[in-house]
Amino acid sequence: MSVKNGINGWAGSILRVNLTTGAITTEDTLPKYKPYIGGMGIGYKIIWDEVPLTTDPLGPDAKAVFGVGPLTASGVPCSGRMNISMLSCWSKGYSIIDAHMGGHIAHAFKYAGYDAMIVEGQSDKPVYIKIEDEKVTIEDASHLWGKGTFEANALLCKECGEEFDVATIGLAGENLVPMSTLITSFGNSGGAGIGALLGSKKVKGFAVRGTGAVKIARPLEVKLLSNYMIKDLVGGNNNHNVPSVPQSWSEYTATTKNRWQGGPGVTWDKAPNGPIDTGEQPSGIINVAAMRCNKGVFDFGEVAEKYTVKQGGCSACPVRCYTEYDMDPLADYDLPTHVSNTCMPIISGKSIYPEGTHDFVDEGDAGIILGGAMSRAQDEYGVWCNYGNLYSDFSRTYKDGILKEHMTEEEWNAVNWQYMKDGDPRWCEEFFRLIAENFSAFGEIGKGSYYLYAAWGLDDATKNSAGKNYYDEVNGSNTNVTYNGYPKHHSSEDAWQSGLLFNSMYNRDCMIHHLTNFCRSGSPYEEVIKPVLEGFFGEGCVDAPKAYTPINENKVKLAKWAFNGKQWHDSATLCNWMYPMTLSTSKKRGYAGDLDLDAKYMSAVVGEEYTRESLEFESERISNLLRVMTAVSFKERLGSTNLRKDHDAIPAWVFDKEPEFKAFEQGTVKMDRDDMEKAQTMFYEAMGWNPETGIPTRETLEKFGLNDCADKLEELGLI
Prior knowledge:
single chain; alpha+beta; Aldehyde Ferredoxin Oxidoreductase,  A, domain 1; Aldehyde Ferredoxin Oxidoreductase Protein, subunit A, domain 3; 3 domains; 36% helix
């Protein structure tokens, strides 16, 4: 199969799989979905058009939209993402939500000829979806049902062929646990409850092989842009642009802990042919970017080198943020030793041991060994952690005695608590099995924070024995950024008011890395970060760490850029851990990045002229569709007419933490209530939303061609 049509960038087809009827059909992507770019944008438009927002998120009428974008599989670096849109089955309002998955499967999907796949209906028996170019079938998966993701993925690869990319749900998804994922054979995860949605449809997973290609309008231009990006712009993971380890070529060494950890003396000790020293990785050299990340060293320090095999990653990514480990100590507990992960599970192993942990072989190695056990077990059972809230909810309720109150004596005694008390890695296996099997109170935790707090009275200090409000409590581990059941994701602690503003816009953790990518880059603030950012966004747009200033228009401009930019990256689809190229590694550029790069890529791939401004406009259309769906969900499900009050409210701990400081004093990241009220008003006005309700106005929606959205809001009395 070669390029299927004359379209540049887009594959041109959307696949629809109806599990009730068995019908498999396709429809054209363009022109209907072009204004929505791809990925997230296509997913939102399909859900808006086809799924009433009162639909049961796990019912037969619910749909999942797997989407990729015009830059996916085009050769553009860091384009290996897939976006999955659906209705939330766990957060307040049960509104629109996304899972985000990396790995290689997005490229395979695009090569097979599809921009999106709509999965609808409900099977009466376990199935998986097999895609091989135009040949798409619904296959029996009875032999896979009940198996963990590692075994199920291996069996699918064996059954379909090693050239297929596969992804499956685990026991958590099969048992409709809202905190559940879809896991690829490389361990890349799409969370947010997609496992439960697929489980409700009896879909174990899918296997895809594409033999086609993506048509590029100006391929030489894409190549030259990619060379320029990798040589002059790309740093380490999160695009951190100066090395943590001193290197002879570099003017600066990181002033704070950052994710460019490679350097002379930093090694991969378990590389297949013997240890590899990552050496120097100068700016301007195209083939050294993959040696910079060493995410394990960032997470655990030098002990990670001992267990590192290599750095893995997604299709088309030169940075490689997935550290692959071989952890010998796990063999002593009859646990798998091969682990690959880059985010929450691998760094959070100690968090589900509320009575403490112990070292294994080396001093301070409990984090990495337990992280390895946690990562493997969590992926095996297909559990999603809600960006750490799952761990925190367990630990807090255990310590407060509330967990035990919600279990019978028989249930309590059925749990192997000794594993936890001994700091035994097998507790990770036990813990995630209990979540995945919906066992007693563990099953309640698996329904997510919003449900749990309401069911156990944890949202009201007068209604639980500990006398706490888990949303508001100041305790160092509470990270709830709204009252909607999800935590912060690089919020005010990284990016002052701007970070807090975009963190409250979604129906799950925001997953926006626009600001933390430069705030934690390691570059000196006065010499690099401040002049570069103010050059882009104006004076006062950026604050030094723990030296915050009151809100101003340029901070709002920065927040709006990051919010809309997230929609762009999840629609294009590009990795938001790396993009945008705000800073660079190049001294000759003054370390300034290139915010026009995304538009240059889009122009070269699609063959139409895009600008940064035109992409931001199209992305803002998707942002407004997100906001409309949230408003409609909150009205139809909760009777709410005010998103500012009912969706965007910020918990008290953000303002009450660090009581020894006042807001805006040197040395604190606490926020000021009145200042944030002003910031929200300014942000709503900048977005063209009603400043009192935070709901888009008709004028704004019609500017983006969302007239039907305006009509719906008017019908519901929201505008």
